[in-house]
Design brief:
Helices cover about 40% and strands about 20% of the residues. The chain is α+β, with helices and mostly antiparallel strands. It has two domains: about 35 residues; about 100 residues, no CATH class. Strands 1, 2, 3, 4 and 5 form a five-stranded antiparallel β-sheet that branches. The chain is rod-shaped.
């Protein structure tokens, strides 16, 4: 069995090309993995979080606000929202907060944009009392 050593000369060009192709493939895979991880970290650092939304609501939207004041607040910040309506009987977030089914609520969502495998939006449910004034709100993160 013959073996190749350095005394016999360099390898053929085909083997050198194969080595460069393998090295290039490994480099591209490493770059792609770093890009995916980096974009996920950047998204998590820059996305809107539930605690930020709660702080904003505490600061700018007092309890006993009217539905019109809630709509003005949401519209001024470009937050998507629905109309006043009765809550659904199967909403787990409302059940956890002991809000009875049929309570008047306003639903809103803060959309997070980005390049991540796990996009997360912030759902807000404004709970109104029998006079139609803001009684409480529930803020939670929901996946897309």
């Amino acid at each position: 069995m013959a073996t190749r050593n350095l005394a016999r000369g360099p390898l053929g060009w085909q083997f050198r090309l194969l080595g460069w192709l393998l090295l290039g493939t490994v480099a591209l895979v490493v770059i792609a993995v770093v890009a995916v991880i980096g974009s996920g970290i950047y998204y998590d650092l820059t996305r809107t979080k539930a605690a930020e939304v709660e702080g904003m609501l505490d600061r700018y939207l007092p309890r006993a606000s009217t539905a019109d004041q809630i709509y003005t607040f949401l519209d001024s910040r470009g937050i998507e929202h629905g109309l006043v309506g009765p809550s659904a009987p199967g909403d787990p977030a409302l059940q956890e907060s002991d809000v009875p089914a049929g309570t008047m609520t306003i639903g809103a969502v803060v959309r997070n944009d980005g390049y991540s495998l796990a996009l997360v939006d912030i759902a807000i449910t404004f709970v109104l009392d029998e006079r139609g004034l803001l009684k409480d709100y529930i803020v939670r993160e929901v996946g897309r």
